[in-house]
Amino acid sequence: MVRVNSIERCGPNAPKGNERYVHYLQMGLFPASLQNIKTVFTFGVLDDFRMDNLECKTAALNYWHKIVRVTSNEFPKSVPVSVPLYA
Predict the structure, then answer these.
(1) Rounded Cα distance, 5 and 19, in Å
(2) Of 4, 8, 84, 86, nearest in space to 45 by CA
(3) Does residue 60 register a pLDDT over 80?
(4) Other C-beta atoms lying within 10 Å of the C-beta of residue 45
(5) Which of 14, 21, 27, 32 could potentially form a cystine with 39 if both were Cys, beta carbons 3.0 to 4.6 Å apart?
(6) Which whole-number Å values give the CA distances from 79 to 6, 38, 58, 66, 75, in the listed order?
């Protein structure tokens, strides 16, 4: 789960089936994909990114690195879902 101030690993507590994304939307979370959901974003982080992008022209990758740094400034590679995008 990606929030404005952290990235967290969450267990699979959503129902199985084709309507999983509806469950997440009802919880106030936006899934990164509609089929194999592994990452969800809070609407707060989406609003914050939108404002950063409009005001500061922040790219999505730079915003992601900011969230990783806020989560663990000393050990950014220890953040659960901070895998290299271009590995």
Answers:
(1) 28
(2) 4
(3) yes
(4) 21
(5) 32
(6) 9, 15, 21, 12, 8
Residue 29 one-letter amino acid: L
DSSP label at 19? T
**The pair of three-digit structure tokens given for residue 52, joined into one six-digit string:** 């950063």
Q: Coil, strand or helix: which one is 41?
A: strand
- For residue 2, the cross-strand partners are 7, 41
- Token pair recorded at residue 33: 């994909």
pLDDT greater than 90 at residue 55: yes
What pLDDT, on a 0 to 100 scale, did the predictor assign at position 86? 42
**Model pTM?**
0.68
